[in-house]
Amino acid sequence: MKILVLNCGSSSVKYQLIEMDDERLICKGIVERIGEQDAIVRYRPVGRPEKRVVRPIADHTEAIDAFLADLLDPVIGVIQDRREIAAVGHRVVHGGESFAQSVRVDDQVIQAIDECSVFAPLHNPANLLGIRVCMNLLPDTPNVAVFDTAFHQTMPASSYLYALPIRFYRKYKVRRYGFHGTSHRYVSQKAAEVLGRPIEELKIITCHLGNGASIAAVKGGKSVDTSMGFTPLEGLVMGTRCGDIDPALVLYLMKQEDLTAQQMDELLNKQSGVFGLTDGVQDMRDIEDRANKEGKPDMYDPHFDLVLDIYCHRIKKYIGAYAAVMGGVDAIVFTGGVGENSPVVRERVCAGLEYMGVKMDDECHRINQIFSRGRRADTPNISCGSTAVLVLETNEELVIARDTRQVLFG
After folding, report:
1. Domains of the chain (ranges plus CATH)?
2. Integer Cα distance of 92 and 407 in angstroms
3. What's this model's pTM, rounded to 2 decimal places?
4. Cα(177)–Cα(157) distance, integer angstroms
5. Positions marked active-site
6. What letter would DSSP give residue 50?
């Protein structure tokens, strides 16, 4: 059974085709710069060279039709007929309170996703566009919506309600929703497998660290708290997002700088985070290079060292808070682009956590470095203490494919 996994953005479409009989990736690709004359169409079947073409792509219909043509190509394709695609699983960013699990797409689901666009105006409309295009191009193929927010619908009200007048929740559903749910779900389940224990017995803190970043407290396999809130702006210091700040600071800066609401939104979401703190550097690898006094003394800048400390301090603070919320922790999981590939971040975050059973030694550091050079070590556990510290590669596409199969075929 082959399932197509689709992640549609406003100007891009990412996809994977997965054989679910053995959960094997068949091919993946991306169409970027949709709507422009120099759009990029990339298609890579597993074990074969990547095809990359630059050409005009007018819209999402043309983009999806382009990669379907690659899938069916008699020379480089991986299927012979569109009917070989048993289903399409779609990443949908926001499901609001309407969806606590993945669902088969019908007219009512489409309407509900559209209504949630007010919470995710940059994402849900694009996700819906992908669904509609697939319904048109693959009319006999069922579609399933998998929501970033669904995993966090198990949070208690004490975690998701803000201390605002309750009428705003009742009227507008203003609350904490949380994001990266498919990633947090996947790595928490993987952590239980690695530890060889039922997830129902475990208290796990999952750290999804990338350009966007969030942490979740997962108790007994269920999310009980998470750092992102009503939008993905709240929580950790991120690539360009500020994370937690005093709300009054927004009003102060708008007044002092004479900023409109749109300009303030741009500042908080696209000009802040490590990008803002470093005056324009967003890549964590570049920040680490300039914060490395011993390894690269000629590049060392103490301000970048401080920025790295700020970034790691926020992560550590949330780990401590979530350990308190759950009454302990059995495992801390690092995943995402930074979480999987930055020994420096992991070591700075874990330093001083000995009181909660985290113990990093030279052997763990060696394993840590091996993983981050792109090779998998014998064990993903980089702590030798009573609390495991796991470095796990996330696989959100596989979660979407699994949910799609489960919803449609049981």
Report:
1. 2-147 (3.30.420.40), 197-396 (3.30.420.40)
2. 15
3. 0.93
4. 11
5. 148
6. P
